[in-house]
Amino acid sequence: MLRTHGVIISQVGAIHRIARFFSPFAWAIEVSRVYVVSTLSITLFYITSCATISHHEFSDPGSEWLTKNGQLMYRAPNTTLIGEALVRFSKTGDFELTVSKGPGITLVSLRQDANFAEVKGGLARQGWSGPVTQAPSQLRGWLGLRDQFLHAPDRNTLRYAAGNETFVFRF
């Protein structure tokens, strides 16, 4: 009986030794499973967020849109910029602005309608799109340009100040 008891005890001891040997691996597998699930969840969130945010349809410029080509001088406390400006807008309130510095270097590209805007380019850093009412404060001056052009469509010079920013267009 003792011998059987000793065999049982030695088998339990062996199982215990094997479990202790594999326990770090089991812990690592559990941890990596948590990381994989977390990473997949975060990735899925960002993919679906991008897909839902960027589904706004802007109107395409048509023959009824007014187009102006000229220069923009932009001043802010730490920035002064002079660049080529292409402005297009419609009577229904659709607006596009592209500011470039030489061929192929777009500094700011802005599309806007009454409720939604999209800003891209080097000056916009990572860019932004969303409802105009939720725009970041650093874009409010740029998003105010739409109203200025809609209220004065025939001007050859347009000056607009918003906070500490100044925009001067010459067409």
General description of the model:
Strands 6-5-4-3-2-1-8-7 form an 8-stranded antiparallel beta sheet. It is an alpha+beta fold and 171 residues long. It has 3 helices and 8 strands.
In short:
The protein is an alpha+beta fold and 171 residues long.
In the sheet with the most strands, the strands line up as: 6-5-4-3-2-1-8-7
Helix proportion: 25-40%
Average pLDDT for all residues: 82
Poorly predicted regions are none
Q: Characterize the main sheet.
A: 8 strands, antiparallel
Shape: elongated
Rg to the nearest angstrom?
Answer: 31 Å
Count of alpha and pi helical runs: 3
N- to C-terminal distance: 106 Å
Count the strands?
Answer: 8
Structural class: alpha+beta
Content of β-strand: 25-35%
Instruction: Spell out the helices and strands N to C.
Output: HEEEEEEHHEE
Descriptive labels:
alpha+beta; 37% helix; eight-stranded antiparallel beta sheet; 3 helices; 171 residues
How is the topology of this model organized?
Layout: H1 2-53, E1 66-76, E2 79-89, E3 95-100, E4 106-112, E5 116-120, E6 128-131, H2 140-143, H3 145-151, E7 157-162, E8 165-170
Antiparallel strand pairs: 1-2, 1-8, 2-3, 3-4, 4-5, 5-6, 7-8
